[in-house]
Design a protein that fits this description.
- 17% of the residues lie in helices and 19% in strands.
- With 244 residues, the chain is of the alpha+beta class.
- The chain has a single domain, classed as 2-Layer Sandwich (Alpha-Beta Plaits).
- Strand 8 (122-124) and strand 9 form a beta hairpin.
- It is globular, with a radius of gyration of 20 Å.
- This is 4Fe-4S dicluster domain-containing protein.
- It holds the Pfam family Fer4_11.
C-alpha cells in the first residue's frame, strides 16, 4: 500500500519560513482555499495555516543550539481524527494514504481537532470548516505541471532541501532511504497513530578547542569572505540561507 509522506531534516532547516509562505500561497488559491487571516499583526493574531515552524533553544552555553521544527499534519497510518468525525468528512485515502477533509460534509464541530494529539488541525474562522495539510493533493497529480513540480509547495520552496517527499512504503524511495540511513523518527510514537511524516535528527553540538582537538584557534584562522567561499564552492546552501 502506498503511503505518501514528508521527511524533514532538522539538521539543515534554517527556519526561513519559506515552506509556511509557499504553503499558504498555494492552498489559499487552490482546492482548500481561501484560508482566512484575521488580525495578522495584532497582539492576538488569528489565521489558518497548514504548516508552521516552531523555533526553540536547546542546550546550555557554550553548547546551546537553535532548533527549527516544522510541523503540519503527519498523515498518520492510523489517524485518530477519522473515526471521531460524525459526518465522515475526515477520511484516509486508500490510494496514497493521505488524510483529507471533505469540506462539503464538514460541520466545524472540532471533534477531529480534539482527537489529534499533534494539534495539526485548524478551524477556518471564515468558513467554519476544519482545514489541514493535504500534501498538496491538488498539485502532486496535476499533469498540467512539469513532472519536477509535482511535489508539495513546501518541498519545492525549501532553500536548503530540508524537506523530502515520497512513498515511505517503497524501500527504494528517497524518503525511505533517508529514514533508514539517517535514523529518521516519528513524532510521539507512543500514541500508536503511526505518523507517516518522519524527522531526521539534529546532529548534537560538540565542543571544539579541547586538548584532543587539532582545529586552529580563532586567532590562527585567516579571514575568509562569503564571496570567496562561494567562489570555491566551500559554502553549503544552509549557510548561504542564513546570510542573505
Amino acid at each position: 500500500m502506498t503511503q505518501m509522506a514528508l521527511v524533514i531534516d532538522l539538521n539543515v532547516c534554517v527556519g526561513c519560513h519559506a515552506c509556511v509562505t509557499s504553503c499558504k500561497e498555494w492552498n489559499t488559491s487552490g482546492e482548500a482555499g481561501s484560508l482566512a487571516d484575521f488580525r495578522p499583526y495584532d497582539a492576538d493574531p488569528s489565521g489558518t495555516f497548514f504548516n508552521r515552524v516552531q523555533t526553540f533553544e536547546a542546550g546550555k552555553y557554550p553548547l546551546a543550539d537553535t532548533i527549527h521544527f516544522p510541523k503540519s499534519c503527519l498523515h498518520c497510518e492510523d489517524p485518530p481524527c477519522v473515526p471521531v468525525c460524525p459526518t465522515g468528512a475526515s477520511y484516509k485515502r486508500k490510494e496514497d494514504g493521505l488524510v483529507l477533509v471533505d469540506y462539503d460534509r464538514c460541520i466545524g464541530c472540532k471533534y477531529c481537532a480534539w482527537a489529534c494529539p499533534y494539534g495539526a488541525r485548524e478551524i477556518d474562522e471564515a468558513r467554519k470548516e476544519m482545514t489541514k495539510c493535504t500534501l498538496c493533493s491538488d498539485r502532486i497529480y496535476n499533469e498540467a505541471l512539469p513532472e519536477r513540480d509535482r511535489k508539495p509547495a513546501c518541498v519545492l520552496a525549501c532553500p536548503t532541501s530540508a524537506r523530502l517527499f515520497g512513498d515511505i512504503h517503497d524501500p527504494d524511495s528517497v524518503v525511505s532511504q533517508a529514514i533508514r540511513e539517517r535514523g529518521g523518527y516519528q513524532l510521539m510514537p507512543e500514541w500508536g497513530t503511526r505518523p507517516s511524516n518522519h524527522y531526521l535528527p539534529r546532529q548534537p553540538v560538540t565542543s571544539c578547542g579541547g586538548g584532543a582537538c587539532s582545529c586552529k584557534t580563532a586567532q590562527e584562522l585567516e579571514p575568509v569572505t562569503l564571496e570567496a567561499q562561494l567562489e570555491h564552492g566551500a559554502l553549503n546552501l544552509a549557510s548561504v540561507a542564513t546570510r542573505v
